[in-house]
């Protein structure tokens, strides 16, 4: 819009300058040729000046019309922008005070809390799996020891030797049973966590 205004202003200035230059030229020639045989030149120069005046008037009218159109468009755009800004401001205020904003914040808090709980559960699950593996290895070891004791007892029986005390055998079985129960309990806890 500024470019169009400046271009129209330049054209108007050039045309006005040309008109004044022609008027001066006309006046100068008129003063030089005031003789009786030169009214034709004067008439030609007068017509050119009149045409130039008409052209300048047309350019001025066109320029004023274009400027008025641009001002109207600028005012319309300004009103639209103002209305859009007010609408945006109103919407932002409404959104800030809206209960959905509170609900969204609550949802974000719940998601954050859920992620924290999931992290804790994952850590507990890893710990329980480690304990389960440890207990399983211990059960296997005790089962092997118990098996070797039973083989020793069986071999002594067959050899006619007196077996080790009954209490040692019962103590080994009791420890194995206790460990098996604990491993089973840990497996149930782990299964409930993974669900």
Automatic annotation (TrEMBL):
It comes from the Eukaryota. Residues 143-173 are annotated as: Disordered. Residues 148-173 have a biased composition (Basic and acidic residues). This is Uncharacterized protein.
């Amino acid at each position: 819009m500024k470019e169009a205004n400046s271009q129209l202003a330049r054209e108007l200035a050039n045309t006005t300058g040309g008109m004044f230059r022609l008027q001066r030229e006309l006046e100068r020639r008129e003063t030089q040729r005031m003789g009786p045989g030169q009214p034709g030149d004067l008439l030609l120069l007068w017509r050119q000046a009149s045409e130039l005046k008409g052209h300048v008037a047309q350019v001025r009218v066109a320029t004023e019309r274009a400027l008025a159109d641009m001002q109207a468009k600028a005012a319309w755009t300004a009103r639209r922008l103002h209305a859009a800004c007010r609408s945006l401001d109103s919407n932002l205020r409404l959104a800030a005070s809206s209960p959905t904003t509170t609900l969204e914040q609550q949802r974000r808090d719940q998601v954050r809390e859920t992620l924290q709980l999931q992290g804790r559960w994952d850590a507990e699950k890893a710990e329980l799996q480690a304990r389960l593996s440890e207990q399983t290895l211990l059960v296997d070891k005790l089962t092997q020891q118990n098996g070797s004791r039973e083989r020793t007892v069986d071999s002594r029986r067959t050899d006619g030797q007196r077996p080790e005390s009954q209490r040692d055998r019962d103590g080994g079985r009791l420890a194995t049973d206790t460990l098996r129960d604990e491993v089973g309990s840990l497996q149930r806890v782990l299964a409930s966590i993974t669900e």
